[in-house]
Amino acid sequence: MSYTSLVVPVIDTNGVIHEVYGRKVLNNLRAGTAYHLYLPGPHADVWNEEGVISSGGEMILCEALIDAMTFWVHGLRNVTASYGAGGFTDDHLAAFQRHGVKRVLIAYDRDDAGNQAAAALAEKLTAQGIGCYRILFPKGMDANEYALKMAPPDKALALLIRKAEWMDEGRGPAPTSAPLDAVADVSALADLPGRQNAHAARPHEIPVAEAFTPNRLTQLVRDHVNAAGIGKSGACQRT
How many CA within 13 A on the CB side of residue 36? Predict the structure, then answer.
């Protein structure tokens, strides 16, 4: 990872860094260059376990951390990410079970790999008693690209959540309470499960149109890490 990547630490609730995620932010890369990078070895821990703890039983699960950060920046804090399409780990499942997650909204990329991984994951989670919905972006898109192209992105993301499709038809109909079904008006975003005021929570006020440029995302991560004091006392370990 280098200055061409946005780098995000995966920090547990005790301030220990278990994983590091890198996302390339330039387009003029050599053919075959990976856009998503991780430390070598098995993936460990869960990004934003605080969001799992306060989720109220409903989690948004993205394919990559940059997509989870997209929801997080726009105030939807009950979100975490797998480490790629096939990167849902035992740590994720343990965190969901430990904190009483009963429903997962799978927000994987809308491509063949994302669709196949979402279907396989839904089968695994439903076997554990966790209901699954699929958040459907336009074909070929992920959460970050979708938010970049929509205005206002927070309401656009909330609408997709409301329209999420039940993935367990073989076991019966969808629950009578669909994702965010209690919200009659998307303008009432403050009432969404896991939702916090995005502007109040940001260390610095930034225009929404600039929120997802690489430089702005990098600054948001730095502010988040500095506010948590990770650079002062956090240790780094692999398990």
Answer: 11
